Amino acid sequence: MKSLLTLKKYFTRYKTTIFLGFVFIFLSNITSVFVPLFIRDGIDELRRQISKPALLKYAFLIVGVTLISGVFRFLIRQTIIVTSRKIEFDLRNDFWSHLQKLSLRYFQNTKTGDIMAHASNDINAVRNFIGPAVMYSFDTLTLFIFTLVLMFSIDVQLSLLSLIPFPILSIFVYYFGKKIHFLFTKIQEHFSILTARAQENLNGIRIIKAYVREESEINHFKKLSYDYFKKNLSKIKIDSLFHPTLFLTIGSSMIIIMWFGGLKVINNKLTLGELTAFILYMGYLIWPAIAFGWITNLTQQAAASQKRLNAIFAIEPEIKDTSLTNYEIKNIIGEIEFKNVSFRYRKNLPFVLKNINLKIPAGSTYAIIGHTGCGKTTLVNLIVRFYDVTEGELLIDGNDIKTIPLKLLREEISVVPQETFLFSDTLKNNIAYGLNNFESEEFIDEKVNEAIKIAHLTPDIESFPDGINTIIGERGITLSGGQKQRTSIARAVAKDGKILILDDCLSAVDTNTEEIILSNLKNFMAGKTSIIISHRISTIKDADQIIVLDNGMIAEQGTHEELIELNGIYTRIYQKQLLEKELEEI
Q: Which of 138, 152, 223, 566 is most buried by its number of CB atoms within 10 A?
């Protein structure tokens, strides 16, 4: 139950509405408990003398009280249940906001399906506690108290006898509650595995089909589904024992009342009307007993789910603004400097970058080349502050990167990542993704159109059925590899940051298109600090400086001509690519 204490802030936010809901519960129950009293008085009066006015009188009283109680029931749902939906809305938004703040490393180590299970099943389980469980907890408690008070007012001895089975009930509830909590935790954990597997299969459907692994994947998913089915079946078995136990306990109380109450009526120690009212009140206790079991079930499920959610909320973003952050920094010029920078992803892993010393003047164009796995992407990821340096310093405009507000830093960096990601939206919205929503439609259109021209997308867009408003499908599935890369370039161009990072973003386009895009980018990059990563020397040969990385270290640095004269790694790459080009032309 401790895990549910984190919901206190949400209850506090809506305390007035929840309090009103409790008032309506109180009023509903205090009116409904009078019905058995009217029936008692009616039976006893009709036993003395049957009259039509008496029948009408008690009929109207019962209908009237029931109607008033029903109105309050409606108001209960309009307050507490509606509030539970509002809290669910707030909780889901808080969960999503927290996810957005978490560092890249978290998402690399956590399956998407697992996160989706938290956002759906776990939050829904918590909502069931906030609404039905809280509402019926107070409802059953007040009804139980009111009913017992009136039962004791009728006959103390009979009331005490009817409560004999209830201690046994509490033992069963405690036992079953623990079992439900344990089993529901296992169910939710397995649901995360199932969701993650489904998500991976849908994302990798091309590979599955290409390698003819459909049957294998079906069998594997069937096994996971069967395990999920068995875990749910175990919980259902507990539920199937739980509820009959509740009914048996209440049934035992009813037998006691009928026996001892009947003897009291025979001995004229209790009227028939009082026994009838007592039996009706015992019926009133059936719902609290059943609801108590249901509430226990919901609460244990919510506690298990909230514990899983709390574990995520407890994760601190690795990359964030700290006490070192200087909010007086309002803009970025674009000078970048690495001072003895080394980096590794985890303590037990080797360094990916080693003793990097590099200064990139503002407004210059630097290129990075090197063999696969030499640390090119890692180097630029440090500039965007996807990760913090392990050793050394990374400076932007002479300021330690950790002192620059994270939002400002990333707003002034336009990135075209190595792995192109596009949203299932229109082409226009994908290109305009980095622009602020408060900008005018005319400004956005102007930026998007300019970016389309620079990225050489115009001929492609003209062939699309809806032009720039064409829906490109999930991850841009309707586009070719080259079209995806050019769309990604257009998105970075439209954002227009002071620092531009192009991470091997022309690998899927032909050399002619590459030349056109580079020519278009030349004017755009004027005055911006640009970093181009590429395997093609044709892409980077005109850069102000070219950095050759080898095994995480800067092996060579200079202009294209200077590096050719060195006759080192860069020269070997250049000669190899010249040979490949000659072979293609034969």
A: 138
What single-letter amino acid sits at 404? I
Please tell me the pTM assigned to this model: 0.74
Of the candidate CATH numbers 3.40.50.300, 1.20.1050.10, 3.90.1580.10, 1.10.150.130, the domain formed by 421-496 belongs to 3.40.50.300
550, 251, 498: which is closest to 372 by C-alpha?
A: 550
Query: pLDDT for 34-49, tens place per residue?
Result: 888 888 878 777 777 6
Q: Which helix (H) or strand (E) holds 297?
A: helix 272-313
pLDDT bin (cut points 50, 70, 90) of residue 293 is low
Q: Is the pLDDT of residue 337 over 90?
A: yes
- HSE of 465 in the Cβ direction (CA atoms, 13 Å)? 6
15-21: long-range contacts, CB 8 A cutoff, minimum separation 24: 17/79, 17/80, 17/82, 17/83, 18/79, 18/80, 18/83, 18/134, 20/75, 20/79, 21/75, 21/76, 21/79, 21/80, 21/83, 21/135
CATH H-level, domain 2-313: superfamily: ABC transporter type 1, transmembrane domain (1.20.1560.10)
CA distance 147 to 275: 14
Joined together, the tokens standing for residue 152 give 């004791």
